[in-house]
Amino acid sequence: MRKVLKYMSLLLAVVVLAAAIVPTAFAATIFPGDVDGNDAVENKDITALRQHLAGGYSVSVNENNADANKDGSVNVKDLVLLRRYIVGGYDETLPGKYATGTSGENATPWVPIH
Ligand SMILES: [Ca+2]
Ligand SMILES: [Ca+2]
Questions:
Q1: How many Cβ atoms sit within 10 Å of the Cβ of residue 38?
Q2: Would you say the pTM of this structure is higher than 0.70?
Q3: 111: CA distance to ligand 1 center in Å?
Q4: Ligand 2 center from residue 84 Cα (angstroms)
Q5: For residue 80, which ligand has an atom nearest its CA?
Q6: Contact status, residue 93 vs residue 109, Cβ threshold 8 Å
Q7: What is the pLDDT of residues 41-84, one digit of tens each?
């Protein structure tokens, strides 16, 4: 019985320690425009967002990233912004990466390279 209690205490300690470490180690990043979540903003994100908005497609979308203009909803405005950003010639920028739980006010704007 003592051995079981010892292991249970050890297990509890590991769980408590992991709970303290994991949120910091895996703090999420929001990357507006990276709709498919592959850490890049590219043509595939336009396709993924277009299919997501149209419906009827089996497409994986990161909703936080899909909100490219950060207005709190994912809609055609985000698609237009993303398309203009990627195609270029519209002087559009994206907010840049920022940590989940922050407003992103201090994020460095993401400027496309053309
Ligand atoms: Ca992407
Ligand atoms: Ca939006």
A1: 14
A2: no
A3: 15
A4: 14
A5: 2
A6: yes
A7: 999 999 999 999 999 999 999 999 999 998 999 999 999 999 99
